[in-house]
Amino acid sequence: MEGLKNIIRDVPDFPKKGILFKDITTLLADAKSFQTAVDLLGHRYIDQNIDLVLGVEARGFIVGSALAYKLGKGVILVRKPGKLPHKTKKKTYKLEYGEDSLEIHLDAIKPGARILIADDVLATGGTVSAVIDLVEGLGGHVVECAFLAELEFLEGRKKVAPHGVFSLVKF
Ligand code: AMP
Questions:
Q1: Considering the domain boundaries, does residue 143 fall inside one?
Q2: Which pLDDT tens digit goes with each residue over 29-52?
Q3: Are the C-beta atoms of 165 and 151 separated by less than 8 Å?
Q4: Which residue range is the domain that position 133 belongs to?
């Protein structure tokens, strides 16, 4: 796991001053690291009766689709407003300054479906909490929220509780 941790690049002051951005593009670009990461996540969920993997725009699409392929399941998308073409459900949530929204197709989830949420980094947990609301609003069951990396000091895990969080590496 130390290898996966070291290959994630730190970018200071992005997207604004004071933020240390964990850039996972360096992990994705390294064949062995990407394969290891997806294999480890796949191993965790292969026996969990997952119906669908949900990828969160945008880096979550990469993690989510690779993981869905590994599990032999389909992938569904949560996107920024106005991007999904069919009828959608929207969730607006608070950011540090202002607010943001996410959308899902109304027919993406059948009631009772077991959903695995995938994204690159768990920070404050605001984004994934909104995604959980969308899934549950459509009657889905969130099995767990899976991340490549977690910023533990931001305590996103607490915000997401009682839903489970799993991250491959912790900072
Ligand atoms: P959150 O605060 O958990 O809602 O994080 C929102 C999204 O922003 C996550 O999906 C991450 O992809 C991204 N993000 C937030 N903070 C960072 C960070 N320090 N490094 C990399 N990505 C981040």
A1: yes
A2: 999 999 999 999 999 999 999 999
A3: no
A4: 48-170
Protein residue closest via CA to atom 13 of ligand 1: 121
Q: Is residue 25 part of a domain?
A: no
pTM value > 0.90? yes
Q: Give residue-wise pLDDT tens across range 91-131.
A: 999 887 789 999 999 999 999 999 999 999 999 999 999 99
Please give the angle made by the CA atoms of 3, 8 and 13, to the nearest 5 degrees.
150
**Of ligand 1's atoms, which has the minimum distance to the CA of residue 23?**
21
4 in any annotated domain: no
Candidate list 2, 44, 57, 59, residue with the active-site label: 59
> What CATH number should be reported for the domain holding residue 161?
3.40.50.2020
In a domain, 31, yes or no: no
Number of domains the chain is built from: 1
Assess whether pLDDT exceeds 90 at residue 165.
Answer: yes
Q: If you compute the radius of gyration of the chain from its CA atoms, what whole number of angstroms results?
A: 15
* Ligand 1 centre distance from Cα of residue 151 (Å): 9
Distance CA 136, CA 115 (A): 10
